[in-house]
Design goal:
26% strand; 5 strands; alpha+beta; globular; 14% helix
Length: 109
């Protein structure tokens, strides 16, 4: 369902008219602008009013992480690139022994 949505940092949207996927990466309240990063990696700054006029649908983050990195299928299947078959080889997995209590993200807002 397409509807007028408010921008949120970190949320992915689909522009139905242009058939593009993008994420809002920053909002500047002082200037009234947003920074968008498209699935192909392109960055764009637009006015808040222009964003509000777009026909958008909120979507889940795309599963294909390689969109903005221009990685061919051949490279994705390369064992050296993915580290497949080398689970305990620190050359490919240098943080195997690293224990984390989770990821913490801090925002200045």
């Amino acid at each position: 369902m397409l509807r007028r949505v408010q921008p949120e940092v970190g949320v992915w949207y689909e522009n139905a008219e242009q058939e593009t996927l993008f994420e809002v990466v920053s909002i500047d309240d002082d200037s009234g602008t947003l920074a968008l990063q498209y699935f192909d990696g392109e960055l764009e700054e637009i006015e808040l009013e222009a964003f509000l006029q777009l026909r958008l649908k909120v979507i889940d983050q795309p599963e294909d992480w390689s969109g903005p990195y221009e990685i061919d299928q051949e490279d994705r299947d390369d064992h050296e690139f993915t580290g497949v078959g080398n689970e305990h080889d620190n050359e490919y997995f240098p943080f195997d022994d690293f224990e984390s209590g989770g990821v913490r993200v801090y925002d200045d807002y």
